[in-house]
Amino acid sequence: xxxxxxxxxxxxxxxxxxxxxxxxxxxxxxxxxxxxxxxxxxxxxxxxxxxxxxxxxxxxxxxxxxxxxxxxxxxxxxxxxxxxx
Length: 85
What we know:
Radius of gyration: 14 Å
Largest sheet: none
Helix content: 55-70%
Distance between the termini: 15 Å
Structural class: mainly alpha
């Protein structure tokens, strides 16, 4: 029974990650970033790694920062749900 839960959770985790990557047009290395955050139990947003997964966005009127915050929030939600899975 427990094995079934973990199997289901892994499939759901993969769906959520893939969906986020497609929705936000994240770069392929974002999967590794998200998996690492799930493993740690929190999202590290200091440094260049987060900037490296976000697609090019205009810096006008804070568009890049808004995009970054939006993506960061969505990654945090995925981490909260799947930490430990």
